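USER: I would love a firmer grasp of how sequence relates to backbone shape in proteins. This is the protein in question:
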Amino acid sequence: MGILDSESATPTPNNLSAFGELVIPGFELYFISKDDSEDSNYDPDEKKLKLSEGHRPNDDDIQNSFDKQEELLWLPCFIHTLQLAVKDGLNESECIRPPLSKVAEIAKLSHKSITTAEKLQNEKFSIPEAIVTRWNSQFLTVSKVVDIPNTLLNERTKKTELLLSTKDLAVLREFVSIFTLFAEATTRTQAEQSISISLVGPSILAIYYDLENESRICKHTKPLCHALMTSLLARFGGFLLNLEIPVDDHVKHRNTFNLFSDDIFLVASFLDGQFRLRWIIQSALPLDTKDRLCEKIKNLVALWAFQLIGCNTDNQDGNVTQAEATTSTVGNVLLCTKDICDGGGLTPKRKSLFSYCEAPQN
C-alpha cells in the first residue's frame, strides 16, 4: 500500500495556516495590531482538506504510483479538520461573549500594567499572553484567569466593569471544560517530531465521549456543545462509524467524513507504543464492541504485515504457518495491553486525552 500523502510529522506553512485568525469571541480587541500575527493567508475552502497539508503530490508522483501498481491513499489533515470543528464551536460562543470579553480585558491589563502583573506573581499566579494565530493559546489565557481566585482577581484589577460575577465564572468554567480536550489535541499535533496520524483515533474517540458527557451536565453552553458535536460527526463521522458508533442520518457529511473511515487510522494507533489498544479498552465503548474492534485491528495488522513482506496468506503452508505466528504475536500484544489496562485502575486527577498513558502517581 502506497501512502501518497500522509500526515506531516512537523507543522508546515500550510498546516500553520489552519490556525490563522481563529479567535475566541471577545478576544478581538485583545490583539491591538495585526502586525503581531503570523502569516494567516488561510483559504477556508474545504476542498483542500481532501489532501494532507504536508507534501502535495504532483503529476509525476501520481503517474509513478500507477506505474508501480500501488494503491493510492490520500489522507485528510487531522489538525486542519479539527480546527474547522473548533471554528464551528466558536461560532456558537457568541452567547458567552460578555464573560470572555472580560477575561480578554483582564489579560490585556495584566500584560500592560507591571504593577498588576507583579501583584499576581506575588500570589503565584500569572496570565500567559494570547497569540492571534493560536486559538489554544487564547484558551490557555482563559483557563489561567479562571484558575485565579475571584476575590484576588477582582482586588488586583480594581475595575468594576471587569468584575466576574458568579454566573460569569460558571459560564467560563463550562467553556474551559468543553474545549479542554480540543486544546490538548491541538497542542499535541503542533509539537515538533510528532506524527499526528496515530493521534487521530484516540483523540476523536475521547473527544466524542467527553462531548456526550458535557452535553448532559452543561447549563449555559448547550448551543456551543451541540455545535461541536454536530461538527465532529460531520467531519469525523466515517471514523466513528468504523468504531460502531452510530451517526444520525440527518448529519450533513463534510468532505472529510468518508476519508476518516480508512482502517489506517485504527492500525496507526496500534503501532504507536503509547496507545496499542489502550485507547479502545479504556474507552466508554460497549464491552462487546471493544472485543470486536480489538480482533479487527489484530487481523488488520497481521494482514498488512503479510502484504508488506510479499506473503500470500491463501497459498502455501509455510505462509499459513507464518501467518499464525504473526497473528499469535499480535494477540500476545493484545493480551498484554489488556492486562496492563485492566490492572492499572488509574483515576485521572484532571481531564486529559490520554489519561491511561500517564504513570501512576506515588
Q: What stands out?
A: Residues 9 and 195 are 4 Å apart (CA to CA). The chain has two domains: 2-257, 276-343.
